[in-house]
Amino acid sequence: MAEPRTLARPYAKAAFQAARDQQQLAEWSELLTYAGFVAANDVIEKLLANPGMEEVKKAELILDVTEQTVSEHQRNFFELLAENRRLALLPEIAALFNTYRADLERTVDLEVTAAYELTAEQQQKLTQVLSAKLERKVSITASLDKSIIGGVIVRTGDLVIDASVRGKLAKMADAMGS
User: Against a cut of 0.85, is the pTM above it?
Assistant: First the structure.
């Protein structure tokens, strides 16, 4: 059986192409993100798996719960997902769509973990440095983890920059152990 991401990719690409052509990337992103959250809900997941419910009704339910205003193109997209029994893929479709959008807009969301609370000045400096390094507009979400002792760990997608004291100590221990 194919992976959900593999199944979701052509739908995400189609939605992205339609949104880009219509110059509605933000609107599509918002709708797909909300719909992804709705489809991932335990109760909704069970409804989507119910063979006794019409597929189009499932799409309408998701759109109703999102409380979003939808265009004809968006409604058609959801009906296509329903006809192909792919509504359960909405979380993956939304994630892929948002990745395509970030690539087009040259933006990246980073998770920064620090041992201590970062000041606004430190966050701004880190944003500037990472924007230059990644050649993208950077948005940072900071969190605390005192176990890293000092420094920071930066994560986005597959990229991890470990500039923490704990990480450096682990590297040193590995080097000494080999």
Answer: no
